[in-house]
TrEMBL record:
PANTHER family: MULTIDRUG RESISTANCE PROTEIN MDTO, P-HYDROXYBENZOIC ACID EFFLUX PUMP SUBUNIT-RELATED. GO terms for cellular component: plasma membrane. Keywords: Cell membrane, Membrane, Transmembrane, Transmembrane helix, Transport. Its main location: membrane. GO terms for molecular function: transmembrane transporter activity. The keyword Transmembrane applies. This is FUSC family protein. Pfam families: FUSC. It comes from Vreelandella rituensis.
Length: 652
């Protein structure tokens, strides 16, 4: 077929609703899955369909992600298989202890997986449900424990090897040049905006910084996939994230409503830096302009700080380009990534509780298919707990798993009885795997469609002689489909989550830190708090963008949190100095009020205003002005500080 015909076919498929890149990826994955099934069957593995399932789980559309996910899948499978075998050996004949041990292990893995980043998170989640597969299928099939563990591990290795073989041959290399160029353009735009602000050019509206913050937040969210595949890629993403955090700090300074002193000379230096970035000059040249601007703005500590931060981040980026790595301590000073401990704790409690309820019901009733219910549920509540809106995707998964279960029943009782040899059982599965590509790549059906083939393969073990009854097959199919149904119910009822709730939880964590800062001080952790806050701002803006909401609320709230945090640090330092006892008591009383910021933001604002009067009488004019300004921001952004009771329990 000529290139012209291929382009014409691609355009026709695109008009019919197919995603062409996803179609190519689906074809590669389906081919590798068929090859893995045949290979695993040919070498005599007990569950060759697991190898085909592994291909779908490990394959990725770009090479770097494929390599890293495959390696972490092997790691997670090794850990999960080992724990599953230990649980079987430790529990012995006691189903109750097996259920309890498995529920707590899978829950722990779900919590750890939600607290970590990148593919290590995936490995943690996989460690949980791999243990479920070994322990529960071993219980259901009465297969030798060690043989089952070895079979699970070997099928995963076959699947990963085939996914890597086909992927490395047919998957394109990922390109990071687009992220690099977008980062350069964003940096130039921020510098031009800062120069305009310093030179007091026509008034800058709040919309311009907000739009730039949204672009930066989207870019930061896309760094994670680009960090896969090599150590150099991870260091590249780390240095880029430092630059984006510094740009966020700069934009928050631009958004400050208070009018600072005129900085024409510093503005000229920043304008030179912006022009140098436009011309793609070396980053040290840009950083030198920013250092010059910082020296010219020494009378404005906040401005000097953001200029220094951005200059240091650009130097760190250049250090990566020269050496292929980053300086860990320098990168940590510039940005500390947010970890959602609240969501992680909720995922752990949800997973453990749901599996305990299901497992105890299985123990009490003795239902033979109970192992499959617990297995399906453990996979769903673990793997999809990291999604922005797991209940929404679970509805699609439930529908596709029902389709897969029906097809599996039809294969077992309508098609396989006609087969005379075991290879024919495998051959019947191959076209059913390949047909997955159609729903997998169509825009209307792609959500959850991969679970059709996963359930089809899970329920279809190609082994002669065919055994069992239709009633047993139906019970197992219903038990497997009950997994996503129970997961859907748990995601809706037990710590329900979506992008909006996670945004509010993150806001609660930020405010909890402010309260702790007011009550206990920061004890030398000012830089850590600030570096983490800039990454949290990017996450908040990203979640607001996902929901189609205007970003001004979270930007204004974040700016208020930053301003208040800086004031609290100054007040704590002032309180520890030699001051009059009456002033010290007034500061302590005001800080106690701020320590209940979420419950009573207006009272905290009033306490800061009263404190500002006291400080002004003590000739602390600048600190009084900043305290008064913080109180004003709290009043103007009162909604950001008032959280529901479930958010008030958030811990950092």
């Amino acid at each position: 077929m000529t290139k012209t015909h291929m382009n014409r076919s691609a355009r026709w498929l695109s008009r019919k609703g197919f995603d062409i890149e996803r179609l190519r990826f689906g074809l590669r994955t389906a081919l590798a899955s068929c090859l893995a099934l045949c290979m695993a069957w040919a070498i005599g593995l007990e569950h060759p369909q697991w190898a085909a399932m592994t291909v779908w789980a490990a394959s990725q559309p770009v090479r770097s992600l494929l390599i890293e996910k495959s390696l972490y899948r092997v790691l997670g499978t090794l850990v999960g298989t080992g724990v599953g075998l230990l649980l079987l050996l430790a529990a012995g004949d006691s189903l109750l202890w097996l259920v309890i041990g498995l529920a707590f292990w899978v829950g722990l893995c779900a919590g750890v997986g939600n607290a970590l980043h990148s593919m290590i998170s995936y490995a943690a989640l996989l460690s949980g449900y791999s243990a479920s597969m070994v322990a529960l299928l071993g219980t259901a099939s009465n297969m030798n424990t060690l043989a089952l563990g070895a079979d699970r591990l070997l099928t995963v290795l076959v699947g990963v090897s085939m996914a890597l073989l086909v992927g490395l041959l047919l998957t394109p290399r990922s390109s990071r040049s687009d992220l690099e160029e977008r980062g350069r353009r964003s940096t130039a735009r921020v510098l031009h905006l800062l120069a305009e602000r310093l030179n007091r050019q026509p008034r800058i509206t709040a919309q311009a910084p907000n739009e730039l913050l949204a672009d930066i937040a989207i870019l930061e969210a896309q760094l994670e996939p680009s960090a896969a595949g090599s150590r150099r890629a991870r260091h590249s993403a780390r240095s880029q994230r430092s630059v984006l955090a510094a740009l966020t700090a700069t934009l928050l300074w631009v958004r400050r409503r208070e009018q600072g002193p005129h900085h024409a000379a510093a503005g000229k230096a920043v304008a030179d830096a912006a022009l140098a970035m436009d011309s793609a000059e070396p980053l040290p040249t840009v950083a030198e302009h920013l250092r010059r601007a910082r020296r010219l703005a020494e009378d404005d500590p906040a401005l000097a700080e953001v200029l220094g931060r951005l200059g240091d981040a650009l130097i760190e980026r250049q250090y990566f380009r020269d050496t292929g790595r980053t300086q860990r301590e320098q990168a940590r000073r510039l940005v500390i990534r947010h970890r959602d401990w609240v969501h992680a704790r909720q995922a752990m409690l949800r997973t453990t509780g749901v599996l305990l309820v299901i497992g105890l019901a299985w123990v009490v009733t003795g239902w033979p298919a109970g192992a499959y219910v617990m297995l399906g549920t453990s996979v769903m509540v673990t793997l999809f707990s990291t999604f922005e809106n797991p209940a929404w995707i679970m509805r699609h998964i439930l529908a596709w798993q029902a389709v897969g279960a029906l097809i599996a029943l039809a294969v077992r009782w309508l098609l396989w009885p006609w087969a005379g040899e075991e290879w024919q059982l495998v051959a019947i599965l191959l076209p059913l795997i390949l047909i997955t590509v159609i729903p997998f790549s169509h825009r209307r059906t792609l959500n959850g469609s991969m679970d059709y083939v996963m359930i089809l393969l899970l329920l279809s073990q190609p082994a002669m002689p065919l055994t069992g009854t239709f009633e047993h097959s139906l019970a197992v199919a219903l038990a497997v489909v009950a997994g996503p149904l129970l997961a859907l119910i748990s995601f809706r009822l037990v710590f329900p989550t979506n992008a909006r709730r996670r945004q509010r939880q993150l806001e609660g964590m930020m405010l909890h830190e402010l309260e702790a800062m007011a009550l206990r001080g920061t004890a030398g952790r000012e830089e850590i708090w600030q570096a983490r806050l800039y990454h949290r701002v990017m996450r908040l803006v990203h979640w607001a963008h996902l929901q189609g909401e205007p970003t001004h609320r979270v930007v204004d709230g974040s700016l208020t949190a930053l301003t208040l945090g800086e004031v609290l640090q100054s007040l704590q330092r002032y309180r520890q100095a030699e001051i009059l006892p009456g002033t010290a008591r007034r500061i302590e009383a005001s800080l106690r009020r701020v320590g209940h910021l979420r419950q009573a933001p207006l009272e905290a604002a009033a306490a800061l205003e009263r404190l500002a009067h006291t400080l002004a009488r003590r000739q602390e004019v600048e600190l009084a002005r900043r305290a008064r300004h913080s109180a004003k921001l709290i009043r103007e952004n009162q909604g950001f500080f008032q959280h529901d009771a479930w958010v008030l329990s958030a811990k950092c």
